[in-house]
Amino acid sequence: MMSVFHSIWTVLMFILFIGIVVWAWSRRRSGDFAAAAQIPLEDDEPETELIPPAEDKHG
Asked: What is the reported pTM?
């Protein structure tokens, strides 16, 4: 009985894998993936927002 369950599970996971591959390589997704591939090449925003403002020294 357990081997039947393992066989069914293996077939279901293979079908899921094939579905993900088809989804990833579909023409509808190619534009999204092309845009995502360009993200590392884009300029970063200036980091001035991350620097805390200088404190005034009264004294």
From this structure: 0.55
Is residue 51 domain-resident? no
Helix H segments across the chain?
2-24, 27-37
Neighbours of 29 (CB within 10 A): 13
The label of the residue with tokens 């390589």 reads 25
Per the structure, the count of domains in the chain is: 1
| 54 domain-assigned | no
pLDDT tens sequence across 5-46: 999 999 999 999 999 999 989 988 888 989 999 999 988 776
Q: Is residue 7 part of a domain?
A: yes
State the amino acid at position 30 in one-letter form.
Answer: S
| Other residues' Cβ atoms within 10 Å of the Cβ of residue 5 | 9
- From CA 4, how far away is CA 26, in angstroms rounded? 33
